[in-house]
Design a protein that fits this description.
There is one protein chain. The chain has 119 residues and is α+β, with helices and mostly antiparallel strands. It has one domain. Strands 1-2 form a two-stranded antiparallel ribbon. A two-stranded antiparallel ribbon has the order 3-4. A hairpin with a 2-residue loop joins strand 1 and strand 2.
């Protein structure tokens, strides 16, 4: 199983880059996953999105409505799309489990994504 080094220890990730154990997440782990996802350093705005998604998932065990995320952290309406392009990338960086039965599709070539049930 693949691992990343975070906070001085090896943290297990699956073949798609998702954390195996949600409790292994830390801000350092988020930065390491973000780098694997092509983001050099997470900004404060991006970290606010990540933390909100984690809190929401811990409460409801589900992916939040994207505009709800932005409204609650006082960022522009499309903040998740603007900061991460694909919302699944933010979810992965937040250390949350793979989204089973859900995927994101873009209708405009990758600028905005919509969540759909699938598979």
């Amino acid at each position: 199983m693949p691992t990343i080094e975070s906070d001085g220890k090896q943290v297990a990730i699956d073949d798609r880059g998702f954390l195996v154990n949600i409790d292994d997440w830390s801000e350092d782990t988020a930065q390491k996953i973000a780098k694997q996802e092509g983001l050099e350093v997470l900004t404060d705005e991006q970290m606010a999105i990540i933390k909100f998604m984690r809190d929401y998932y811990k409460t409801y065990s589900y992916f939040p409505i994207l505009n709800y995320v932005c409204k609650n952290i006082h960022q522009p309406k499309q903040c998740v799309n603007e900061q991460f392009v694909n919302p699944e990338k933010a979810w992965k960086i937040a250390g949350l489990p793979p989204l089973e039965g859900i995927h994101f599709v873009s209708l405009d070539g990758g600028k905005h994504y919509l969540m759909e049930e699938c598979c």
